[in-house]
Amino acid sequence: MLTSVVHVCLAGLSTGMFIWLVASGLTLIFGVLGVLNFAHGSFYMLGAYFCYTLLRVMGNNFWLGLLLGPLCVCVVGYLIERYFLRYVYHLALPYQLLLTFAFVLIFDDLVKIVWGPGSIGSPSVAGLAGSVPILGRNFPVYNIFIMVVGPLVALGMWAMLERTWWGRIIRASSSDREMASAIGVKVPALFTAVFVFGTWLGAVGGGLAAPYVGLLTPGMGESIIIDAFVVVVIGGLGSLKGAFLGALIIGLLSSFGTRYIPTFDMFLTFILMAAVLLWKPEGFFGEAK
Amino acid sequence: MEEKGFTRRDFMKAGLLTAAASALGPGVLRPTGLWAGTSKIKGPIKVGYQAIMSGALAGYGEFHKMGVIMAAEEINASGGIAGAKLEVQFRDSTLKKPQAIKNARYFVDSWGADFLAGVDSSGQALALAPVIAELDKVIIITHAATEKLTEQQVYKKGIRQIFRISSPTYQDGNAAAFVAKDLPAKSWATISPKYEYGYTCWRMFKNTLSILKPGASFIAESWAPFGTTDFRPHINTILDAKPDGLYSTEWAGELITFVKQAKQAGLFDKIKHVMFPVGAAMDVLEGLGKEMPDNIWISGRYFFLYPDNNQNREWVARFKKRWNHYPAYVSETGYSAMFAIKKAVEEAGSKETRKVINAMEGMMLDSPAGYRIFRKEDHQAIYDVPWGLTKTDPRYPFKIMGKQILVPAKDCFNRPPFEGPGTKPPF
Fold it and tell me: Has residue B230 been placed in a domain?
């Protein structure tokens, strides 16, 4: 019984951290730029593919792949922000959704053309491949690694936004674009930087997820992006704290749901989202508008 | 009106002339060269083939194509079908029902297909059934496995245009139970897809094994929705239940993910008897490579090392030479479907739907997988596919079937009328 509960918890926490890595970039981009970026799932997919390809090229060095792969995706993110998104900031939300959704379709097909329509097996990470017994049941070392990386990313982002000069400028620009630019902040350049950073987070999420899922598939970003959206909505659009907490809740809920109420496991997260939207439409930590 | 130059009478005359010319045509303008056939079948013979060519399961589509293209090349190189050229067009079926229907209608209405073939998803196959009846073209299903297609749509509702060349869920459920009855495992559990195919196989496995081995118990089930990437919670459910055996109809990419995650969780150390009814698919074996554990029971719709005879060995060698791959089971079923069409059309002496159906009912087909007979009542091809234990073999970069057990199709396939005593195994 204890083994069971502990392992269901561990599974939930690691699932939650996978979702958080993707949701963090999504909520950051929304919080600062006010853009709901559908293409974030594509950055996740591209991150996985670029990491894999670089890893293959450079003698199966996972860490080098993880370092360089997301940087390549950042270039893609930069081009999208600089030459497309920038022109729709002032338009209504549906235009942004349409544009970013168009990129989802384009990237799915591009991946099929470049890497083939089938799935590619992803190797496990040397050094993190095994399992450790916890209360008599094996738990993957890689998942423990993810459970460490997730909070570190959260801590790093919090420190950057709350404790640095850059963070202050970002917060200032997001709360009042005009005033920030009036006092000399180059808002467009800042927005590009934030978008590229958000892209990087999504790509790292993809690069880290591939060894656990074991497969790279065109369209692999689509299922995770739904979970990430739910998390961001529950936590409060644009709130990092909310997204972190939301990811933990969704991860645990799906793990416990699958184990103890399997008939309804697919509905649980959406029931929670509906409940939050009814009683606290701005999310746990969102600002009421 | 009459002064317009081209009167109704002229129009009639022109029409008559055209009709006369076309009637004379075959005699006057006898085709020469490769397609100088002897029969009265007007070529080409067009086959519209749909399979999944995008998303996580796109690997299946590629393997379908390899088999079908190779069959068309071989058939056309040796005189075509009764002298007529075989033409195949492919379309991506995705997994959505409306897309399957759209493809079928396009093939028949716009492209002028004489036959249809392919289809991976059970749900799509069932949705297509009434459309096929309306289009009135023969379709040969090469993958979709639900027994409801042949038992209900063909046998009960009488949609005679549907044939299935691949083995149905009887192989996954019933045959698995025959293998399981001789294993020391008493309690069984499942992690399977949360849709029609997963439910129907597990039900069949349970029912048949309960009869074959009255002491067997079924103690846990965990259903993974389509697109599951994290099986950890499902694995916990199964490990908590501590079954002796695990039965899983997960397939393609999801089976690969599941095996990798189960391995990390130590599932294969704790559960000694594991059965994957579609684990012998080449995309899974190649995708997992050495990571597939040894001594797992696997099966499929065909396995390239069975039957161990010259005909199959030569076919596998030809396939390997043509595509640099070992044939997947959908390659074999796609390949054989083309030869089934050839044989039926040649026997019928026509590509007319009624005549082809009559020729195909009860028809015996010699194919790489061995002899197949299309059962008259439900149009299901009867042929044998082994179950086997995974084994490392230095000649292959992936696991193959070592020890094999053959449950003959005649012993494990449900029998018409599919209801009442004596219709379900054991017989």
Answer: yes
Interface test mutation site (partner A, options B190, B229, B258, max chain A beta carbons within 10 A) = B229
User: B12 lies in a domain?
Assistant: no
Nearest by CB to residue A215, choosing from B62, B239, B256, is B256
Could you give phi then psi for residue B114, rounded to 5 degrees? -90, -30
Sorted by where each starts, the structural domains of chain A and their CATH numbers stand as: 6-279 (1.10.3470)
Interface test with B, best of A13, A258, A260 (most B CBs within 10 A): A258
Q: CA dist A175 to A33, A196, B74, Å?
A: 10, 19, 69
What is the DSSP code (8-state) at residue B153? I
Residue B400 sits in a domain of what CATH number? 3.40.50.2300
- What value does the mean pLDDT take over residues B53-75? 89
Give the tens place of pLDDT for each residue, A48-100. 999 999 999 888 889 999 999 999 999 999 999 999 999 998 888 889 999 99
Same domain, B232 and B293: yes
ipTM score: 0.89
- List Cβ neighbours of A4 (8 Å cut-off, separation of 6 or more): A259, B236, B240
Q: Which domain holds residue B152?
A: 45-168+308-382
Closest by alpha carbon to A224, among A74, A31, A21?
Answer: A21
Asked whether residue B403 falls in the same domain as residue B262, the answer is: yes
Residue B147 shares a structural domain with residue B242 = no
Residue pLDDT, tens place only, A259-277: 998 888 778 888 899 999 9
The reply to whether B194 and B50 lie within a common domain is no
- The shortest CB-CB distance from B257 to any of A139, A214, A262 is to A214
Q: What's the number of domains chain B is made of?
A: 2
Buried b (16+ CB within 10 A) or exposed e, B154-190: bbeeebbbbbbbbbbbbbbbbbbbbbbeeeebeebbb
CB-CB under 8 Å, B260 with A214: yes
B229 and B373: one domain?
Answer: no
Q: What percent of chain B has pLDDT over 90?
A: 84
